[in-house]
């Protein structure tokens, strides 16, 4: 019997052990699926009612009279074959679930590593932003200091201008006085 634990990974990343299943395993899965359906239950109930009705009503050719011993044998045989078929299907489903859990675990681990890498990058970006903010603050402070120095320089230049005007004015006044004195 081939090993069904080996699985192939399909294009969306999920495992697909059905590719490795034998004909009997696929048949067991189909039977289990059918036996667990309402269709099977209703058909089986109809079969039981018809069996009992035919054998209860028929006066001649009863192949299974009232205690329905043959029906008991059929039901016992059915139960005896259903149990291992269901168990085989459940075992394969458990294996598929285990493989899916392993795959999910691997995906989650990879996602966790990627998240950790992104967090490291985010911390690095935050540190760079803090450094950039500090540099920007230094530049703003220098600019403010330069601006303050510029204003001081402007004030000094204004004072120099006013001193120049005063000097011109006093010079002009002296010249006028000298001219007045000469005229006299």
Automatic annotation (TrEMBL):
The chain crosses the membrane at residues 31-54, 66-88. It comes from the Bacteria. Residues 108-184 form a coiled coil. Pfam families: DUF1003. Residues 1-22 are annotated as: Disordered. Keywords: Coiled coil, Membrane, Transmembrane, Transmembrane helix. This is Cyclic nucleotide-binding protein. It comes from Candidatus Magasanikbacteria bacterium CG10_big_fil_rev_8_21_14_0_10_47_10.
